[in-house]
């Protein structure tokens, strides 16, 4: 099209949503994808998308990162600690075989208004061709404690630390689940792979939710979900009963949020197990580790969770500590077979926050009486 006498071509690999933000470039001749493709073409044009950093800046960042050591391996490749301008960063490297996963995760992280203190801070996505193969990079903030799974394996936690960790996870999930209306709004997002390995622990003792590659977004105007979501995805051990027995109504977005809440209850159980009262705590255990094999099948899980209706054990000892008693009650209300009866992330956040408020008040009163 002609604009001010200059030819401008609509960049056709930008999603229709972004097009409303008037994104143009000057040479999109061979690009036919509707979604932004992060190809050299895209990266060569400085696009000021309404979210995230401009693509050219993302590329410049990732090209100046020095990789130091591998810190983990997951389903979709390796995670490295790297340095960028003297700062630690985490680099998740996907192989080109997993391009869809890389693309999806980058896309979700760049959802407008997603940034939150309890969601992993995304920095850049880039594709690097080293001559023989293409490496797909996802650069994010680095958290030296690693995942909550790593952390709980290594340390037990005090009641206060448990509350701080639990509130922060609920805050992150509540933000993800919440729809914010307006031009600077955000769609509701369901994670679909909540587990202790996908939550990272920050230096200040709070958490961030990571691994958004399986997430789904809700378009409340058209009441549609942004990707076909008919497969059973996620981690079998953490799957909600309605996913295991295939009774989930995938046309209702609430279903995905409720399934996240079930998984959150399991993460809380892992956390509460490691909570130390008067020096007493349990060893770290994965949920259901006493009932299913180490790499359980969907059928193994279905028998335990749906047929036998078993859930992780809520210890009687937890009744002697107010915070653990409340955590136990929350877990039960996350695990209802009837998904509609489960708590919401916002409710959980408020209930656990009140625990810390009550405790603070008590401390203050205590201090006043000293
Ligand atoms: N931003 C980060 N900062 C610090 N450590 C990280 C970061 N991202 C990931 N890790 C570490 O790398 C490990 C591997 O992460 P990855 O998400 O690839 O796999 P996973 O979560 O362990 O398994 P899965 O593939 O089932 O999600 C994590 O368990 C964590 O210990
Ligand atoms: Mg992961």
From TrEMBL:
GO cellular component, one term: plasma membrane
Positions of ATP binding: 92
Protein's name in the database: receptor protein serine/threonine kinase
Catalytic function, reaction form: L-seryl-[receptor-protein] + ATP = O-phospho-L-seryl-[receptor-protein] + ADP + H(+); L-threonyl-[receptor-protein] + ATP = O-phospho-L-threonyl-[receptor-protein] + ADP + H(+)
GO BP of this protein: cellular response to growth factor stimulus
Protein family membership: Belongs to the protein kinase superfamily. TKL Ser/Thr protein kinase family. TGFB receptor subfamily.
Record domain Protein kinase: where: 65-357
Keywords for this protein: ATP-binding, Kinase, Magnesium, Membrane, Metal-binding, Nucleotide-binding, Receptor, Serine/threonine-protein kinase, Signal, Transferase, Transmembrane, Transmembrane helix
InterPro entries: Kinase-like_dom_sf (IPR011009), Prot_kinase_dom (IPR000719), Protein_kinase_ATP_BS (IPR017441), Ser/Thr_kinase_AS (IPR008271), TGFB_receptor (IPR000333)
EC number: 2.7.11.30
Main location: membrane
GO molecular function, one term: ATP binding
Subcellular location: Membrane
Its membrane topology: Single-pass type I membrane protein
UniProt key word rRNA-binding: no
Highest taxon, organism lineage: Eukaryota
Group of enzyme by EC: transferase
